[in-house]
């Protein structure tokens, strides 16, 4: 999959991405994972907040504010956490444990909104609720280790997400950092925000692996004990959320490790994690979302050649100005369907996903678009393309 670097087409994809996020936003402010004919019943905090981040970078502050207000409405007043999922009106509809990275992403997105829109009144109005969310995160930092323990994270696949996990810990650092600068602006102090350096130092101490010269995915301590080295694309949270500078040698070495080991050989692009013994059931092929995190690393580094290379790839996947959660060969996709079928795992939702994949125009070309449009991928594109234009001072 290759295509030329075309600014007009990338700008069109940016506009379509913003439109899709707005289409996925409900009257209540909640943002769904995809736009489809089917009535989707749930709003997932992680996807909702990533979509909100896309709106912020697109300058759609009014809609972003509405999305944040939806999250405040759906925040647990007692614990300060966000539930694992909401119904369409923002009521708790969880069936799994609370995921700590969602609370951190909430704080980070809130801080990005306040900083970029200069809406400091909004920060003052909700500050007590922000403190509750900070307290919740701090309650999950394990003393002595100084890392956050989470039952699940970005992959929504506990076997590799449950433990001291990199995406979650990176986000907690970034949230504390960004909130500290807002606290200064509105002349408030909140001591628990000082935990940023504590967690950051623990990431350096325990989550850098000197043998493979890469940051690792997870330290398992509860359901099993061990180290999940990766390669895992969620480690890119360290660069995307600027926990470490993109020019840091450890980040460069980590990126090299990912590029070498996670390239989807059939179609290029970055896999989220390798084909391995067991994985989240739809996880197959290359991930536009994580490939965009890689593009972002090169944007921040000022390496235009590599940034363009990955943006070209994303453009080549967006055959109908839509981005899927995964793009894979038809052959790989049908092998997965066969395995799920043999194991008796084809429920109605999975069947619908399979049908939609087979109906896509690109399927005739041997390419499977799995879960399209995927709103978090469009949100990440909005962020990365905005950063690209800013970094290389493209005309708007």
From TrEMBL:
Gene Ontology BP term (one) = carbohydrate metabolic process
Glycogen debranching enzyme C-terminal domain location, by residue?
Answer: 50-135
Name-wise, this protein is Glycogen debranching enzyme C-terminal domain-containing protein
Organism field: Candidatus Iainarchaeum sp
Q: Which Pfam families match?
A: GDE_C
InterPro entries of this UniProt entry?
Answer: 6-hairpin_glycosidase_sf, 6hp_glycosidase-like_sf, GDE_C
Single GO molecular-function term? Answer: hydrolase activity, hydrolyzing O-glycosyl compounds
Which family does the record claim for this protein?
Belongs to the glycosyl hydrolase 15 family.
Top-level division of the source organism's lineage: Archaea
